[in-house]
Amino acid sequence: MAQPLAVVDTCVIVLLLTKQSPTEDESVRTRRELAEVAINDLRKEGARFVVPTPVIAELCSTGSSGADVVRKRVTKHLRRVKTLPLDVAAADVAGQMAKAALAARAPGDARGAVRYDALIAAIAHANSARWLVTDNRKDMAKCLGAVNSPVELVVTSALPKKGQLHLVHIGAKKQ
């Protein structure tokens, strides 16, 4: 039996790679710790971690080589990690997600995150991932909801909802 896929969003990778410092904001430290707990819990569930190629593109937009970040640094947290490309099936789903997101936005809302979010969520959906690990519930839920995707969101900075993995979040506030 194949291991269930856990697709990891850019924001989680950024949290995992943020270096801890004495002057660090408490909320960043807590969010990073919660992301680590979520990754460990998914590992216990037998998850196989994958990073969609649009995550690499998004990491590149920060000025570093996204491929180098994934290859050299992300594997430290996720152990073995595989990348998933945007294929034709995922591109078709991404188009449906983006269309729904753009139709639902408020007049004058020119938010461009739809591009990466839809691509990442579509790759998760098209590859029958069990989980999409993110810290961006709002946008990813809209994308997955647009196609009635069965992919389950694991929101690393929130207390788990019914049916989500049972995560212990010490110090987290209920939402």
CATH architecture: 3-Layer(aba) Sandwich
CATH superfamily: 5'-nuclease
Average pLDDT level = 79
Proportion of beta-strand residues: 5-15%
C-alpha Rg (nearest Å):
16 Å
In short:
The protein is α/β, with parallel strands linked by helices and about 180 residues long. The chain has 7 helices and 5 strands.
Model description:
It is globular and about 45 Å long. With 175 residues, the chain is an alpha/beta fold. It has a single domain, classed as 5'-nuclease (Rossmann fold), CATH 3.40.50.1010. It has seven helices and five strands, in the order βααβααβααβαβ. Helix content is 50%, strand content 11%. Helix 7 (137-146) links the parallel strand 4 and strand 5.
SSE layout and pairing:
Layout: E1 5-8, H1 10-17, H2 26-44, E2 48-52, H3 53-60, H4 66-78, E3 82-84, H5 88-104, H6 114-126, E4 131-134, H7 137-146, E5 152-155
Parallel strand pairs: 1-2, 1-4, 2-3, 4-5
Protein traits:
7 helices, alpha/beta, Rossmann fold, 175 residues, disordered C terminus, 11% strand, single chain
